[in-house]
Amino acid sequence: MKQYVIDEIRPGDLKVLKSYLDEHYGPARMNGVYCMPLDPAFYSPCQASHTDCQPFYFALELTQDALCCEFLVRTDNRIRCDCIASADVAQRNWLIHMVDAIFERLSIIT
Questions:
Q1: Long-range CB contacts (within 8 A, 24+) of 44-52
Q2: What's the pLDDT tens digit per position in 25-83?
Q3: Which H or E run includes 25?
Q4: At what angle do helices 11-25 and 89-105 cross, to 10 degrees?
Q5: Residue 78, pLDDT score
Q6: Cβ distance 56 to 47 under 8 Å?
Q7: Rounded-to-integer distance, Cα 86 and Cα 41, Å
Q8: Contact, 91 vs 70, CB < 8 A?
Q9: Which of 2, 24, 1, 9 is nearest to 62 (CA)?
Q10: Under a CB-based contact definition with an 8 Å cutoff, are residues 78 and 100 in contact?
């Protein structure tokens, strides 16, 4: 699976990041996995037409020293569907921008 990974996060910064993720996307579902909702403006035509499958999100896993962001658009409403797919370029860029903005907002240098 393709991912955007930011590693070597210092312990102090990890605590700040965890607090931010808990406040905005949490609490973590299990083992540090958070769900970042995808902005509906970035839904693919298939995703936009699958109103029963919405909302869509990206999974972010916070580990001991890294944040791993999967490039897979997911839904909680189905296990298998055509709308669950690898992020397209716009969705991927949106996720990277969002995660980078969080690090900038928290003054975490990577």
A1: 44/73, 44/83, 44/85, 44/88, 44/91, 46/82, 46/83, 46/85, 47/73, 47/83, 47/85, 50/75, 50/81, 50/82, 50/83, 52/77, 52/78
A2: 988 888 889 999 999 999 999 999 999 999 999 999 999 999 999 999 999 998 899 99
A3: helix 11-25
A4: 120
A5: 86
A6: yes
A7: 17
A8: no
A9: 9
A10: no
- Which residue bears the tokens 């995703």? 47
Of residues 31 and 94, more confidently modeled: 94
**Joined tokens for residue 76:** 């909680």
**Could you give the CA distance from residue 21 to residue 4 in angstroms, rounded to a whole number?**
16
Provide the residue type at 58 as one letter. Answer: F
The Cα–Cα gap between 47 and 83 comes to 5
